[in-house]
Design brief:
Elements: E1 3-16, E2 20-27, E3 31-37, E4 56-62, E5 69-79, H1 88-104, H2 112-128, H3 132-145, E6 167-169, E7 187-189, H4 191-202, H5 205-209, H6 219-233, H7 238-246
Parallel strand pairs: 3-5
Antiparallel strand pairs: 1-2, 1-4, 2-3, 4-5, 6-7
Helix pairs in contact: 1-2, 1-3, 1-7, 2-3, 3-6
Length: 247
């Protein structure tokens, strides 16, 4: 049972017994794992505040064959985003990032693009003081990296170019459609939203966030992307409802 270590992002932690915690981590080298941090709830715990949601850490752990949970030995804080979460809505947006990541990312499958995406999103929220663009960017790229994003440039049925006019899409269908080909139940994605999505797919978030003409996708894009995610994971996202209520 060798000691292993990796960069990681804390996605969630919850109490176990009187003194311990179960921690969900997205590690850079091993993908998503869950582990037990013994004594993490004690006042003088060696873990301190390193196991807070979204903490960027270096973690040391033991993995035993046949066990679902690793044993977390040590955790060193690289960067904390607790300051960003003091704003209630921003905190909910980042909690949604964590909930989506935990639901979408498979266990023991590393993904450096997904790891960098989470950190880019958290940094953008901190640096701009706003969460709308970073959250949309995160959702769009999460759906794309998972292979669930349809072609938003052409109608899936007739092949007509989209963008000059609204497109229509639904989580249950495989592509976006023009107004003529749309099916009942599809939601409208405005031309402005399609243009914003195109820019987000072409430009890094840290570059977009600093531009005066940064794209401002409408709520229609977030709703559609979250519908796609919920359909794929086959459950509702708790923080989605909380954030929608808060806005």
């Amino acid at each position: 049972m060798p000691l292993r270590d990796s960069e990681a992002i804390v996605l969630r932690s919850f109490p176990l017994g009187e003194a311990d915690r179960i921690v969900s981590l997205f590690t850079r080298s091993m993908g998503r794992i869950r582990g037990v941090a013994r004594g993490a709830r004690r006042t003088k715990s060696q873990f301190g505040s390193t196991l807070q949601m979204l903490s960027h850490v270096r973690v040391w752990f033991y993995e035993r064959e046949g066990r679902d949970l690793v044993r977390i030995s040590q955790c060193e804080l690289v960067e904390s985003f607790l300051d960003v979460q003091k704003d209630y809505s921003a905190g909910l947006a980042l909690a949604l990032v964590c909930e989506v990541s935990e639901a979408v990312l498979p266990e023991h499958e590393p993904s450096d693009p997904a790891f960098r995406l989470i950190l880019l999103t958290a940094h953008a929220v901190r640096e701009t003081g706003k969460f709308a663009l970073p959250l949309s960017y995160f959702l769009l790229w999460t759906v794309k990296l998972a292979g669930w994003l349809p072609d938003l440039e052409r109608c899936a049925k007739c092949g007509k170019a989209l963008g000059a006019e609204p497109a229509y899409a639904a989580a249950a269908t495989s592509g976006a459609m023009c107004a003529k080909c749309r099916k009942p139940g599809m939601v409208m994605l405005s031309a402005k939203t399609l243009a914003a999505a195109g820019r987000m797919l072409e430009t890094r978030l840290d570059r977009l966030a600093g531009q005066p003409d940064a794209p401002l996708p409408g709520a229609d894009l977030d709703r559609y992307l979250l519908d796609v995610i919920e359909r794929q994971i086959e459950r509702k996202l708790n923080t989605r409802r909380m954030l929608e209520t808060a806005q």
